[in-house]
């Protein structure tokens, strides 16, 4: 009988060891499975984020295609270094058309910063009458560049309809960076 009991005990021990081994394998597999599930969730989140990013890119491309010409037109109002000389010549020509004793000069030699924009200052002096001054300002407004009239001073009036000396300080917004 003792042999039978040893046999049962060793069979029982083997069975327990096997069951413990299976249990440990199951715990290990559960851990691996849980890790894989977390990886899959992370990949799904990344896929969703990439799809959203792609959607944003597609929308941006559509918007750019729609407004490409408008964007180029808007950028054209900011002259480059070369275009500033053309602006100065044009400014002088317009001033000469509406007055005499015209002088148009850079007030600053390099662009100044205003927020994220750059600008150059110009001083224009001319002798003109009220009606011609208004025509000059209207024509200045029609130039293809973004400008801002900072000051307008008038002096030496020769009557209500007579000539006067006018000085204007004009901001011309330029490309940033200010290059050709």
CATH C-level class of the largest domain is Alpha Beta
Order of helices and strands: HHEEEHEE
Measured by DSSP, the beta-strand proportion falls in 15-25%
- Count of the domains: 2
Count of DSSP E strands?
Answer: 5
Question: What's the total helix number?
Answer: 3
Structural class: alpha+beta
CATH H-level superfamily title of the largest domain: Ribosomal protein S6/Translation elongation factor EF1B
The helix fraction, in percent, is 55-70%
Radius of gyration: 40 Å
The profile of the biggest β sheet is: 5 strands, antiparallel
Q: CATH topology of the largest domain, what is it called?
A: Alpha-Beta Plaits
What is the residue-mean pLDDT, rounded to a whole number? 87
Low-confidence stretches: none
At CATH level 2, the architecture of the largest domain is 2-Layer Sandwich
Principal-axis shape? rod-shaped
What is the first-to-last residue Cα distance? 107 Å
């Amino acid at each position: 009988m003792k042999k039978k009991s040893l046999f049962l005990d060793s069979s029982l021990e083997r069975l327990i060891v096997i069951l413990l081994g299976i249990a440990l394998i199951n715990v290990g597999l559960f851990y691996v499975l849980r890790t894989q599930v977390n990886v899959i969730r992370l990949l799904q989140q990344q896929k969703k984020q990439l799809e959203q990013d792609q959607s944003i890119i597609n929308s941006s491309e559509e918007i750019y295609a729609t407004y490409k010409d408008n964007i180029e037109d808007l950028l054209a109002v900011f002259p480059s270094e070369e275009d500033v000389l053309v602006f100065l010549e044009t400014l002088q020509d317009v001033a000469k058309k509406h007055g005499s004793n015209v002088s148009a000069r850079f007030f600053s030699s390099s662009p100044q910063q205003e927020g994220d924009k750059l600008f150059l200052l110009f001083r224009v002096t001319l002798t003109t009458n009220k009606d011609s001054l208004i025509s000059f300002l209207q024509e200045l407004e029609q130039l293809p560049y973004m400008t801002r009239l900072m000051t307008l001073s008038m002096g030496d009036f020769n009557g209500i309809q007579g000539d006067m000396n006018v000085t204007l300080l004009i901001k011309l917004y330029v490309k940033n960076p200010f290059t050709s």
